[in-house]
Amino acid sequence: MSDSTDDAAHLIAQLLAVRTLPRRHPLAQRAMLDIDFRAEVERRLAASGLRLLANPFAEHLAVALTFDAEQAVFGQDTHWINNNFGLAKDGIALLVLLWALIILPKRERQWSRQSQETQDQPDMFGAAKPLSTATDNARGISEATLRADYASAAGGWTRISMNLGILSRLGFIERRNKIIYEGALLDLAFDYEQLAPRIINGALGDLLAGKTAATEPALVKVGAGETAMSSPQSTDALVKAAADALNLSDD
């Protein structure tokens, strides 16, 4: 057995055991730089119905279900389940809102900086590092702001606070000194290519409410992947759509 194969197994085992790894981890860095090693990791994951998440905008790596394997996991019952974390609908809606409030402004800064850096000097090793900085990740949202602006739409602060605790334990967010920061999974939480057009087109409320159950995708997976695309058209519009979705209540 080659060292490459052994290291591939070690990387996969760590991703499955701890859910995410920072890009600075030696094996994570190798997966970003070594084409053969990356191919071996992806081959091994694919054999188990999994895929590697290496979002160029995120500070961490994770794994998710392949699209072919989703039916076996999310479509077992008579209806399509929308997450594998046990989140209620208002928990998902809050996750979307936080993604919009924290990740989308960060993404706009990343796109702006990437455009400027590309004009200044191409980076031949850019794939090895995320398109973000510590300053990006340090920007969060205060719990006081969340409470003042969205508590009434989400059924009260008690419910929001409970869901914040759940999202924190799952690794989507971090809470420090009454500020909500991006967690390891938040920038990996959604399939951008699939979800962004639905949000931009104003379909988020119907999607989360289950009104499009026949075509509803699994919004949250093992750490569902995001595909790099063009910059979001309007952060304000996406945040509003997520806030509107908070009017959901559990059945």
Low-confidence stretches at least 5 residues in length (pLDDT < 50)? 203-235
Please give the radius of gyration in angstroms: 18 Å
Beta-strand residue percentage: 5-15%
Q: Looking across the biggest beta sheet, what order are the strands in?
A: 1-3-2
Q: Level of helix content?
A: 40-55%
| Count of domain modules | 2
Give the overall silhouette: globular
Number of helices: 11
Distance between the termini: 52 Å
What average pLDDT do the residues reach? 74
Give the tally of β-strands.
Answer: 6
Walkthrough of the structure:
- With 251 residues, the chain is mostly helical.
- The chain has 11 helices and 6 strands.
- The protein folds into 2 domains: 3-74; 89-216 and 228-245, no CATH class.
- The N and C termini lie far apart (52 Å).
- Residues 203-235 have low confidence and may be disordered.
Can you describe this structure in just a few lines?
This protein has 251 residues and is mainly alpha-helical. Helices cover 50% and strands 9% of the residues.
Jot down its keywords.
mainly alpha, 11 helices, 2 domains, 3-stranded antiparallel sheet, globular, 9% strand
Layout: helices, strands, pairs:
Layout: H1 3-18, E1 20-22, H2 26-33, H3 35-46, E2 50-53, E3 60-65, H4 70-74, H5 89-120, H6 134-138, E4 141-142, H7 143-150, H8 157-170, E5 173-176, E6 179-182, H9 192-200, H10 204-208, H11 235-245
Antiparallel strand pairs: 1-3, 2-3, 4-6, 5-6
